[in-house]
Amino acid sequence: MSKRFAIRPTAIAGALLVCATGALADPLPSWNDTDAKSRILAFVDTVTDPQSSDYVTPDARIATFDNDGTLWAEQPVYFQLFYAVEQVAEMAKTDPSILTTDARKAAANGDLKAVLTSGKEDLIDILALSHTGRSVEEFQADVAAWLDTSRHPKTGLRYDQMVYQPMLELLTFLRDQDFDTYIVSGGGIHFMRVFAEDVYGIPPEHVIGSSIVTTYDTSGATPTIQKQPELFFNDDKEGKPLAIDRHIGRRPIMAGGNSDGDFQMLEWSTSGDGARLGLYVHHTDADREWAYDREGHIGVLNRGLDEAEQRGWLVIDMANDWSTVFPTPAK
Amino acid sequence: MSKRFAIRPTAIAGALLVCATGALADPLPSWNDTDAKSRILAFVDTVTDPQSSDYVTPDARIATFDNDGTLWAEQPVYFQLFYAVEQVAEMAKTDPSILTTDARKAAANGDLKAVLTSGKEDLIDILALSHTGRSVEEFQADVAAWLDTSRHPKTGLRYDQMVYQPMLELLTFLRDQDFDTYIVSGGGIHFMRVFAEDVYGIPPEHVIGSSIVTTYDTSGATPTIQKQPELFFNDDKEGKPLAIDRHIGRRPIMAGGNSDGDFQMLEWSTSGDGARLGLYVHHTDADREWAYDREGHIGVLNRGLDEAEQRGWLVIDMANDWSTVFPTPAK
Predict the structure, then answer these.
(1) Domain end: A103, A119, A149, which one?
(2) Which of A72, A159, B35, B157 measures 20 to 30 Å from B52, CA to CA?
(3) Of the spans A23-27, B217-221, B295-299, which averages the highest pLDDT?
(4) Are strands B224-233 and A314-317 parallel, antiparallel or unpaired?
């Protein structure tokens, strides 16, 4: 049976003491001094204290996080979709003959709205055109070039600057406490690996995501791995615990997400024995980011909000719990 | 283009110097002082020496190894098949009603030969019966119990004692040199994880294998992951580089196998830039283990033997290069 993480007064006292005395620098400076921060510090204190009955050995300190809406923003559409549309435009520059459909033409014209309303078949075509028919290396070079040149339509920031500073601090803090941090996201596994190590400090082998079929091709001078237009695994909802089992083979003791697509990952992670921490990033900050939860086309959070309290999961109130949202860009 | 690993005189001199002066204990004591050992030592020296033009940073020191026939024995049949047959016998003890076919009855009677000649459909049925219809946790408890009680028909050893001592030393040596060691095997991913950490020092997240479809089940008091009778991924031949790409996301700089099922993994690993080492364990030792290569039903090695030399891959002659095959059992 699950033993949910309960706030132990001694652990909190310990965490507060560290802060109060300044014996150690605050590992989470972009988190306000609210209950959310206290619970995270208390949890980490509990599982890393060899004297604690909930002590967890370093090899079992696995923490998994969703990406879109949990580590970086996801509005007005998943950033990977911006890549898809802009990549079609880029491809059309050198080969206009690819513009065989209205949706492709809309993509080439940067008309995201028209692409989104073009229907499922056209959308799949845009995704296939932008994600397949080349090697993993070529695809990742395309994504890297897109990251370098594209800017978010609302903020004008690079997409990889729209990551959440408090979550970057949490990832670093966890690794400093001998956790292994993983991404477990519905986003594309090859797509995320392009920036996950630089931006999050998460190496390729700790990035788990959705994937398409690949093939091994020895027709050239050196072998390549080619991306094919067929879904291999959808890393969402029930897929997340299954992917965790397949890739990691251990149950996380901590998991974070922001939508009902993360529900099963939090459920799976927090139903193991001992102290566990499930957390939801709740998008409550229309001023600094976006405010959304139960309705919309992205990041819908219904069941999670309904059940978080009874399951002992932490709901992070972005507006209230975070003093900073995005990192200050260098210069 | 591939830059194959060439033996550099300075690297060998360095390695020999270490051995000759006894400045460090021999990391591979069960390897005879042959060319095979020298090449392995020279390769590791080259990629770990910051002064070397082929220096590789620790995060990119990825080494992948096949399991059956490379890290442990695989004769007269894959050990996982012994598990399957003996598990059916074990299940029949408590529920004889499962013995609905001749092949199942043969399994219950320990008649491996009859099972093997029963036909593909019956064999798949034996595998499904022994590997599915339960949770991952239940399956792994069954495998652990089998490992504890079963003995190899020829040697009388526990199956997890029929691992190759020289390869255990190689794995430890590589990890001591900041390599990440992975298993990439056609064997079942859940099956191998039961013993890989204890026996090889390889944790679950570094075990990649074949897998069947799993489902997430919340019908009980706590969620479980259930194993279903349908193949998800066959981690053999072309599947190996594809699985490496999916799980690790980096190209290994070293790969070891023993059959043509490992050919593509060695090809993929050694076709990257810089120093690379591909190695084959060649079963040449009928006295201490088994002697087989080009013919038979298991571990067939044809193309590998034909092309190893031109590709610069090391072929380990078990009879000549290894002073010990299996570890001496404790007590």
Answers:
(1) A149
(2) B35
(3) B217-221
(4) unpaired
- Strands A277-284 and A291-292, by their bridges, are antiparallel
Band of the pLDDT at B297, cuts 50, 70, 90? confident
**CB–CB of B189 and A268 under 8 A?**
no
- Residues paired with B278 in a beta bridge: B255
The answer, as to whether pTM is greater than 0.90, is yes
How many domains, in total, are found in chain A? Answer: 2
A240 Cα to chain B: minimum distance (Å)? 9
Mutation to test the B interface, candidates A205, A228, A268, most B Cβ within 10 Å: A205
Domain final residue, candidates B117, B149, B181: B149
**Chain segment B131-142, per-residue pLDDT in tens:** 999 999 999 999
pLDDT confidence of residue A328: 86
For residue A68, the Cα-to-chain-centroid distance in whole angstroms is 5
pLDDT, chain A, mean: 93
Return the sign of the alpha-carbon dihedral for residues A153, A155, A157, A159: negative
Q: Say how many C-beta atoms besides its own lie within 10 A of residue B320's C-beta.
A: 14
**Is A215 close to B242, i.e. CB distance below 8 A?**
yes
Please tell me if residue B223 touches chain A, with a CB cutoff of 8 Å: yes
B190 vs B187: CA distance, rounded Å? 9
Q: Peptide bond preceding A76: is omega within 30 degrees of 0, i.e. cis?
A: yes
For an interface test with A, the pick among B242, B267, B271, B303 (most A C-beta atoms closer than 10 Å) comes out as B242
- B198 close to A (CB below 8 A): no
Average pLDDT of chain B is: 93
What's the complex ipTM? 0.92
Q: How far apart are CA A42 and CA B240, in angstroms?
A: 42
Contact across the interface for A242 and B205, Cβ inside 8 Å: no
Would residue A158 count as lying in a domain?
no
Show the domain range for B45. 9-75+164-321
Of A1, A222, A225, the CB nearest to B2: A222
| Percent of chain A predicted with pLDDT > 90 | 91
Q: What is the pLDDT of residues A44-87, one digit of tens each?
A: 999 999 999 999 999 999 999 999 999 999 999 999 999 999 99
pLDDT of residue A7: 42
Q: What is the mean pLDDT of residues A13-32?
A: 69
Q: Are residues A104 and A126 in the same domain?
A: yes
Give A-chain residues touching B180 at CB under 8 angstroms: 205
Interface A-B: count of C-beta contacts within 8 A: 81
d(CA A272, CA A270): 6
SS3 of A50, please?
A: coil
Chain B partners of A268 at a C-beta cutoff of 8 Å? 216, 223
Interface test with A, best of B61, B180, B216 (most A CBs within 10 A): B216
pLDDT digits (tens, 9 = 90+) for A217-258: 999 999 999 999 999 999 999 999 999 999 999 999 999 999
